[in-house]
Amino acid sequence: MRGLIGHPSPNPEVASELLLPASALKMAGVFEVEVDGVHHDHGGHEDDKQIDMSQLSPEERWRLEHARMHAKHRGHEAMHAEMVLILIATLVIAQLLLVQWKQRHPKSYNLVTLFQMWVVPLYFTTKLHWWRFLITWLLFSTITAFVTFRATRKPLERTTPRLVYKWFLLLYKMSYATGIVGYSAIMFTLFGVNLIFRIKPEDAMDFGVSLLFYGLYYGVLGRDFAEMCADFMASTIGYYSASGMPTKHLSDDICAVCGQQILVDVSEEGIIENTFRLSCNHVFHEFCIRGWCIVGKKQTCPYCKEKVDLQRMFSNPWEKPHVMYGQLLDWLRYLVAWQPVIIGLVQGINYVLGLE
């Protein structure tokens, strides 16, 4: 490859092997100035004036850059192996530290993670000028800030719990549907269905990846804000305490999630919503307990903290994917919030050690 790039050959067989036109091969000879500490300049200045990168197709430019990259990194196998070891070691150590932090100080861990998930994508999208994401992010932040403000007020208004759970449940369902549409678009593109509608593969793939990103990102972020609001509201109402005993006694006709009276008996069919009884015999509005478990990421009774049987609660097979989707969002939180930080740390270590 070195001889081919450093000394472009007019041989057609060589050109076909690289799949580059003769002009691109001349360009490669001009661009490769220094490899392995040896300066190469073979009088390509005339070609440099006549041919520029704008004259090449995107595919030809990509192949040329690919060839230049191989020439630049030839003989650096030991350095690359060292960089891979640094990456693996950093990932393992960071994962151990994050697990210990989450176990010992869950509140600070959740707050820092939520802040990073909210800010890190904003930094990259602003830098890349992704205005559509910035508009949706601003809209989400405005509404969520208002809902969070209402949820953290004391005394808590009677309508606030319903407002909070309605907004975050709506956001959860929208993110779920958006993610499904994005994933379907990616699959259809891989199977060539986009060609039936005369849509370019790159356009169809960009559409699918964008929707999948929107769905997963706002799904993760919305669930974390919902969990924080659920803790604030339940503690304010008094029937729930994250640590210790509740400050109020729960009556049989009061929902511990929203603090409102239960008007429909468990055995009756409600017009708007039903009443649900947990295995601990505490009763709740079905809408409230679903929001508490799915959106608020709670798997215990809001009053006595007995574990909730999610399989019994979601007996309908069409509702079980929502539970699995929630678990997927929990796993993706690490990738969204901490993976960019870890990659940046690895790059910093490589820079200090002089690895490229």
From TrEMBL:
Protein name: RING finger protein 121
Lineage: Eukaryota, Metazoa, Chordata, Craniata, Vertebrata
Domain RING-type: 255-305
Subcellular location: Membrane
Transmembrane segments: 83-101, 108-124, 130-149, 170-197
Keyword S-adenosyl-L-methionine in record: no
Entry-linked SUPFAM superfamilies: RING/U-box
Keywords for the protein's UniProt record, in alphabetical order: Membrane, Metal-binding, Transmembrane, Transmembrane helix, Zinc, Zinc-finger
SMART domains hit by this protein: RING (SM00184)
Membrane association type: Multi-pass membrane protein
